[in-house]
Amino acid sequence: MEEKIILEDENGVAREFDLEISFTLGEKTYVLLTEGEESDDVFAFFIDEDEEGEILVPVEDEAEFALIEAEYDRIMDEEYEDLEEDEGEVE
Fold first, then answer.
1. Strands (DSSP E) found in the chain
2. What is the pLDDT of residues 48-88, one digit of tens each?
3. For the purposes of burial, counting CB atoms within 10 Å of the CB of 6, is it exposed (0-12), middle (13-18) or buried (19 or more)?
4. What's the CA gap between 19 and 43, in Å, rounded?
5. How much is the pTM?
């Protein structure tokens, strides 16, 4: 079951996103969201805190986004390798 996250844009319009993945890189925890299978767009956020609790802050720095993309690719490659190893095992 995919986790859904609802965010409001700057106009107060609520949009539903699917949680693609979350991971820690350095001192930040990043969250990658998509608008469903029909969209190729991925939205990157990091988790921060304000007086009300945890908030998602959009990643706007291109260099930071490149680091996130590289870490995501590494994680996906690792998961793919693990799947291949599991499929090759004989019980």
1. 4-8, 14-25, 28-34, 42-50, 53-58
2. 999 999 999 999 999 999 999 999 999 999 988 877 776 66
3. exposed
4. 10
5. 0.81
What's the sign of the alpha-carbon dihedral 70, 72, 74, 76?
A: negative
- How far is Cα 65 from Cα 33, in angstroms, rounded to an integer? 13
DSSP 43: E
With H, G, I as helix, E, B as strand and everything else as coil, classify residue 45: strand
Instruction: Show Cβ contacts of residue 23 under 8 Å, excluding neighbours closer than 6 positions.
Output: 29, 30, 71, 72, 75
* pLDDT, tens digit, 9 for 90 and up, residues 33-58: 998 778 889 999 999 999 999 999 99
